[in-house]
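From the pipeline queue, job 12 of 40. The input is one protein chain; the requested action is below.

Action: predict structure.
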Amino acid sequence: MEEEKLKPTEDLHSVQSEIHSKEAPKTDEIEKRKENILNFAKKKASWIYYLILAGIIYVAVYIRTLNMPRLRDITTNTWTLGPDLDPFLFLRWAKEIVANGSLASIDMMRYFPLGYSSANEMKLLAYLIAGFHKLISIIYEEATVTYSAVLFPAVMFGLTAIAFFLFARKVVHKQKPNTRNIIALLATAFFVLVPSLLPRTIAGIPEKESVGFLFMFLTLYFFLEAFTSEKLNKGIIFGVLSGISTALMALTWGGMVMLFLSIPIATLTAFIIGKVKWKEFCIYLAWFFSAYIFMMPYLKSGIIYEIFASTRYEVSDIVFSVSTSIAVAMIFLIGASLFLIKKDNKKIAELEKRSKLPKELFYVLFLTVVLGIIVTFAVGPAFIMGSLAEIKNSLVSPLVSRFGLTVAENKQPYFTDWEGSFGPIKLKIPLFFWMFFIGAVTMFSYLVSSIDKRYKRFLIIGYLIFLISLIFSRSSAGGTFNGDNGISILLYFGGAILFFAIIVYCYKKLIEIGELDKLKEIDFGYVLYLVVFTLGLIIARGGIRFIMVLGAIAPVAIAFLVIKTAERSLTEKGEMKKLFLGGLAIALILASIFTLWAYYKEDSASARGFAPGPYQWQWQKAMEWVRENTPESSVFIHWWDYGYWVQSIGERATALDGGNAIGYWNHLMGRYGLTGPNETEALEFFYPHKVTHLLIDSTDIGKYTAFSSIGSDDSYDRFAWISNFGRDDRQTRETQNETFYMYTGGASLDDDIMINGSDGREILLPRRAAGIAAIIVGEDKDKKIKQPEAIFVYNNQQYSGKLRYAYSDNEFYDFGSGIDAGVFLFPRLDQTSDGRVSLVRNGVLMYLGSRTVHSQLARLYLFEQESDYFKLAYSQDGYIVENLKSQGLTGIDEFVWYQGLQGPIKIWEVTYPKDIQVKEDFLRKDFPNPEFDQAKPGEY
């Protein structure tokens, strides 16, 4: 029988069939595994984002704790706070809360002998530090309150970073899940590394902002959650949480004004475009009233009242303050509008039809007029005009008091200051600034993306012009746009007016073409963020210390720009456009990486420096002497800067401190305690305050301009300054018996001077207009000083005149005649190329004009003149002087010039004449003449 054979084709098909039958299950299994992995990755993607967020927070806290090993008091070898002033008040209070359970109602360590009501201050921060200490004590039993206060701001900033992440993600909540998470992560990375935030959020500096930003971003996040929720119950819950967060911010930090402006303005904007109905209005009410209740607790006893009670916020303050009254007005405008729209009053409805305006806008305008009439009749037109003037001043020149202008961080910045804060600068481009600038415009373009392209372009151009006018109308002090002249103000307000006009025009056109409903598609997250961002620009323009607020807000705009540009470059179909967007995305990503790395390096380097240094060590030693050598009942007086240090480190009461709650006492201290020409007036001021010790610090020399302006009358009679002149050895002249040294520098005169001209006639050298170019000081072979001669310059002419006074080598010289001014000579320390130091005797001098040479500061601190009532009890040399003395360097006394003035802290024991009387006027809290507090144009 023949063997049966298979056909080739049949054989091949059967083999392939067999193979496929064996491989098919494997292929299906692989595909299923791939699908399972993808599904798992999608489900777990959020965890990846949270892990990255955890890494960002770790970096933030790590940087902010780099200074901790150096936060030590060298006199006790225990923990201490960083080189700041205000945190020492909160530390002292936190210690009192931990020890006693609560704060005393009147703090007698402050503003002695009246004391200060704790309810007038933001005491919540101290309670938070005390509560944090109790938590830390569970983990670390040996923790002191100071240690907890040191750690507190770094930990709080970690929580703030989480709140910021949630807020940033909610701003872009309509984006794809991955997109919004990446935007929020990148924004948070920028946020934690912005250098302007570091000084207020680093370990050892428990400032108000360390928790203030936490409550600010929680408020904004909760309000966005509430406003975008579909169910009313959920919206009310988040609205209440937002209100509570607002109250907590208000009880911690004055930055709450941002919230009481941004939320009402954003809500009103949303109402006008038709996005606010009764649900949203109820959410707004939940926010406002929960904030109101917690800001002004009605329970008059118990721990809740003790922690939250504050007299800073009364009903009248909320209703009539320009910064918070807008929030109240929105309740009336939106609530009444919704009511009238629902009621449909015939007469008003007829007016609405004639106006041809949308209902929401018509009723807002109608009720604004009604509200304006009611308020005018209730408070009078003067109040209205005053409020408008206050708004104008807050926008153009926020500070009008002498005190405000003498605090460096309160001064208005220029764009040149912004450049330094919003770098890094590459190719003369401040990267952070331009990224958030373009990012804000980009977000605005997305905000108006739903409307007709023609009007969308108009609005984007209008917003761009508005930003340019807002920022660059204050470019530089010496430039065309200095922020104060007419053209600057025209640009400032002109840009805003033009933008508003464009909005009105586009709104009108949308009505005409029947596309007004397109506005309802606008994302409220963008609206709220851009309102907050714009307010951040205005606030940062108003004061250097508010640059950090803008720095905290801006990262969202940057992240939005970078990620949306990258996303569009991947989805764009047009060849050229895709190429352009791809290049732009790469540039932005590289700029972001470079900026983040530069910020990380800058923060890491500067963080280590936020610790006590030579100046703080000098104070620690002085306060050790105070603790150990003065009675506990002692009362110290000094310039206000040092109050919290004396109270907390020295543990003694003071008449003045950094709260500056009684501005008139600052005026009196400046006028009589430091710049006064005789000690009798100083004693009369000190006596009602029961002052036992006077303290003067070397930095008071540089602050003379500040306290002399604050201490002046309405004619600025005490306003003066102390200028330094360095010896130029190249111009030294020697004769047979004398040597003449030339001291060069430059300073304008702080008082008029009369001198004799070459023809014998008297010549007036007017203050400010004339100046001193140099001073010649001679000495004989015995090192005795000859009468100094000053070289004055006025109208391109040189004049010379002898000065009556001089001080050198612990000897005061009164030459009996000459210009009523003098010099104070002291050594200069030079460092040679081989690292050694050489002491130059009389290497520097201070010029003391007629207003300063007779002052309390000059007579006691510089000249050490003896007094029956001011006895020098202690002098603590500066760190450098103390070190040089310990090394046996001769020729050095108390003062030396090395990278600035190095001088002692001096403390005098104060006694009083037997016949001295208490003058109650020196205990009053208000200025007898308001002009004593007002800054005079042209003096600064």
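Job complete. Residues 133 and 600 are 29 Å apart (CA to CA).
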